[in-house]
# Entry
Amino acid sequence: MSDQDPDGLPEVVRPRRRLWPWVLLLTVLVPAGAAAVAVEVVAGELTGEAARPLRITYEVTGTAEDVTITYPTWQNGFLSTARLSPRTLPWAGETRTRGFMNGGSFAVTIGASGGAVACAVTVDDGTVRTATASGAFATATCDGF
# Structure
C-alpha cells in the first residue's frame, strides 16, 4: 500500500528536479557574458581612440645656450625619435598623429656651459607635463603624456 494515496489511487512518482546543472550553467554563463560585453566596450573605445587625431606641442624655455632636445614623433603610424640642438631658446615644435599614445618622453639636456631650462608638453585633450633643470649636463624630462 505504499504506492497508493489514502483514497486508494496509485501514487504518481515524479522525478526529482535537478537544479545543480542550471546553477552551474548560470554561474559560468553570466560572468562569461559580462566579460564578453566588457571586452567589446574596451575594444570599441580603443578603436575610437586609434582613429582620433592628436596634436602634441613641445616647448622649451630658459637661459641655457647649449641644449639637446629629444622628443618622439609619429610618421604614418610609426614612432621615431627626433633629436636637435637649437641655437637659441625659446624653442617650440609640434607633431600630429592619430591614435592611442601613452608614455611619451620629451627630454632637454643642458650642455657643459650650464644654465636653466623648462620643458612643457601639451596634448590636445589638455594633458600637460612640465619639468625644469639647471646646471651643466642636467636634464629636464617631461614624460607620461
Notes: The longest strand covers residues 53-62. The helical segments are 20-51.
